[in-house]
Amino acid sequence: MDRLFRQSARRLSATDWLIDAVIALGAFGFACLQLTLAVNLLIPDDFMRRLMGIQAMVPTALSLGAIALTTLPLVARRRFPWPVFAWTLLAWAVLQMEMNGIALSVAGPLIALFTVASTRSRGEAVAACAVAVAVFLFAPAPPDQSRILTQLTLFQNGALALAAAFAGYALHEHQEHLRAVEERALAAERTRETEARRRVEAERVSIAREVHDITAHSLSAVSIQAAAAERLVDRDPAAARAAIAEVRRTAKTALEEIRAMIGVLRTGEGPAETAPTEGTERMADLTAYLEGAGIQASLAMEGYDRAVVPTFIDVALYGIAREAATNIVRHADATRAAVTLATDAAAGWAHLTVDDDGRGLTGAQAPADHHGLLGMRERARLLHGTFAAEPSPWGGVRIAVAIPLVQKEESDG
């Protein structure tokens, strides 16, 4: 209800006022034509008109003024629907006594009734229609008017009032339906954006957890080597130097990995979880998981050299493969799957490919919206890699990921 009041009271643009002015002038012109032509068209024979006591109306200043009073206020019909309706209907009821009832057009009151029905609530539309029908049917006829023609005209006016109210209410319901559809679409879009942000944040937390694990592992190694160097510095200086060199190498490697991932931590909010992470040494668990779900699975890692892959990239590849396997089991309806890991040391890239023979990415399962794809894509993007979800040679889906082994340092700008 509040929305309906806001709609009727909204600020009209210059175009809105121009449209309503054209409608008012159009109603005025139509009423003038009806004033002079309606009777002649309805009863073309002059003898019959005189026999029925009807005279063709000749426009006068009084008649034109009466038409203006019932039509020109339509300029403000959308700004003040009820006052315009009441004015035009009352003016018609009063003036038709002086202007020969069947000749004075009801165009103005009908347009005003249509406006009330199309912009106000259903109860208001019914009330306005009832008032208009009552006025049209029970307004007193002029004494010199033919009874048959008067009854015919009154019935016609009542039917036109019902039609105008029904048409206005139908337009109102159509507009409400369109507005509801738009609101549902906007709500769905907001939900989709919220889900996308949630998935991205989940990936950021997961990657932050991996950084924590890498840091803890590296610092533990540094602590052990430093303790060994402290014990050997007097007894075996050569061994102490070797331990210190190992400390420096471990610290340098960890620092490079932390710098590569620091961009993820910059955008996170709150503490990250600190559960242990897993790398590609657990890939056999994924094939076992697939086979346990009744899917024939194969794993190819002969071309993968874990020694040249930074720990955080190795963990990320395993995480993507795990998400792909989960999608295959839950959504693909596949019977077989293949996971391939490889490194190209010369070019400096690590590659992961996951194929299945499931139902593929069609319709509602488009790559941008498919379960889990957004998280996998975000993980690869944060590591400056590439991600593709495309048709597999087997007819299902192929997940193809490539991540550079040497990460670009994040800038502070």
TrEMBL record:
Gene Ontology terms for molecular function:
kinase activity
Q: Which PROSITE patterns does this entry report, sorted A to Z?
A: PROKAR_LIPOPROTEIN
Q: Which residues form the Signal transduction histidine kinase subgroup 3 dimerisation and phosphoacceptor domain?
A: 203-268
User: What Gene3D superfamilies does the annotation carry?
Assistant: 1.20.5.1930, Histidine kinase-like ATPase, C-terminal domain
Q: Which UniProt keywords apply?
A: ATP-binding, Kinase, Membrane, Nucleotide-binding, Phosphoprotein, Transferase, Transmembrane, Transmembrane helix, Two-component regulatory system
| Any Pfam family matching the protein | HisKA_3
Protein name in UniProt: histidine kinase
